[in-house]
Amino acid sequence: MLSSNQNSELKSVERDRVLAWLENNVPQSRIQHILRVEQMAIELADCHQIDVEKAAKAALMHDLAKYFKPQKLLDMAQAEGLEIDPTSAANPHLLHADVGALVARDTFSIDDAEVLQAIANHTLGQPGMSSLSCIVFLADSLEPERGDTSELAKLRKTSYHNLDQAVWLTCDYSLKLLVETHRLIHPRTVATRNWFLQKVKNSQRVVDKTA
């Protein structure tokens, strides 16, 4: 049985190993983004009473495959039997989250399904995703250097009060940007937005009935 100090040291060694890998595989600017996502994920997890260690771990590893070449992403996804829909085939970069979970599993021996799902869901989301996945999804989208507009400030505030509503509204924000810049929209983002919108509406109906 590890003592708390030994356990903390082990976590520190694991984190250092991930950071060393990132140093060799992503630009420094991306590492800074990753560290900001990690910090926001920790804060959100603490706020919503979600496992902080899991949130930090998933956030630190969310962009492991961010700079993999398109063909490598396609090859790894295909080898794992992941679905490669027409949108992902046209823009393989969209696979980096799902492939990143494979890297976390195979390179860093992460076997916690919830952590792996949080890594896999951080870009496109997933209908019904866990609170941990919501936290990493939101931290990636809303970390401080994403911008300082009033809309982003409102989304950040919402993320600390209501994860479901924040996911829905953040999807709306992302979809609007994608439409304005004439980019492909993955159906999973739309499905995620609809699922969380419906969940919020259903919750509001329950509150109205009991009021």
TrEMBL record:
Leading EC class: hydrolase
HD domain ranges (all copies): 30-145
Reactions the enzyme catalyzes: P(1),P(4)-bis(5'-adenosyl) tetraphosphate + H2O = 2 ADP + 2 H(+)
InterPro entries: Diverse_Catalytic_Enzymes, HD/PDEase_dom, HD_domain, YqeK
Statement: the UniProt record of this protein carries the keyword Transport: no
The UniProt record lists the keyword Nucleotide-binding: yes
Protein name: bis(5'-nucleosyl)-tetraphosphatase (symmetrical)
